[in-house]
Fold this sequence. Notes:
By secondary structure, this protein is α/β, with parallel strands linked by helices. The chain is 34% helix and 27% strand. The protein has helices spanning 43-53, 68-72, 101-111, 116-129, 152-165, 189-200, 215-218, 245-262, and strands at residues 9-13, 21-22, 28-33, 36-41, 58-62, 84-87, 92-95, 98-99, 134-140, 144-149, 171-176, 179-184, 204-208, 223-226, 238-239. It has a 5-stranded parallel β-sheet, with helices on both faces. It has a 4-stranded antiparallel β-sheet with strand order 9-10-12-11, covered by helices on one side. 38% of the residues are buried.
Amino acid sequence: xxxxxxxxxxxxSDIDKTLLYSNCPGNVCVExxxxxxxxxxxxTAVATFNQIISSGRLLFIPCTLRSYEQTSRIxxxxxxxxxxxxxxxxxxxxxxxxxxxxxxxxxxxxxKHYPNAPTLTKIRDCVESNHLNVCKxxxxxxxxxxxxxxxxxxxxxxxxxxxxxxxxxxxxxxxQGRKLYVIPDFLDKSLAVEYIIxxxxxxxxxxxxxxxxDQKFVCLGDVKIIPSHSTINIDGALITKSAGINAGxxxxxxxxxxxxxxxx
Length: 264
């Protein structure tokens, strides 16, 4: 599947709050949902990103909690020559829109050992019995669930109650703003990242991410980059001087400098 692609540098990065940022008017909108602006990058970040993906021996791979459909609507990703996406928190790997069947078979087999359908029922019962302010409960390929609350405070309160309801269940809860993720214990982005690294065996691996769901895969990088607003702490990682959308610009500038130094 990937044998024809030869890369010197593999750049694997989380997307949201790492490279892309919401609620940043005055910058370049790189993603729309039903004509509604969703995420932004600075103009310099867009130019740097385009320069990075035009390099013949540097491959960028997004690694995200998002679904493939959500990832595909990011406009700047349309210019990537080799479109390999790690989606659904590592559950899914896509090449040019097609699922990697070998990886999907492995993930589906592991998922069989987790009671996802009863867990969804338990989640809904907890939400209804406690009258939690949940706008939507979503499923990513039936691999994990996302509860979208009305606000971050409601999500934090909901996490406390759901933790009690799911005590000793083989799932972990990840809170990000007003979104609460219920994820099977085995499922982590690092699994898919290790799979991809073994496919390419690059000379240099650059990783970047900002939250707890990124920590394990970021640790796999030879160069690890974390935005200063990050909620994680990794020994030896480069930390941006900037926060917010400017941190995304700084991350891409660092990747570009490494690429120039390596002659790619």
